[in-house]
Amino acid sequence: MRVSKKANIGVRNRIEEFDHRIYRDLRHKRNRKHILIPTLITTIALILLIYIFKIANLDLRSNIGYSLVVFTSFAGSAFILFMTPYSRSSSTRRFVKSYAIASVFGELGYLLTGIIGFYPAAAFTIFVVALLLFETDSAHPPAMGIAFAFVIFQIDYAGLVIVVLGVALFAGLKLLLEKLRINP
Question: I want to staple 125 with a disulfide (CB 3.0 to 4.6 A). Which of 4, 60, 109, 116 is the partner?
Answer without folding.
Answer: 109
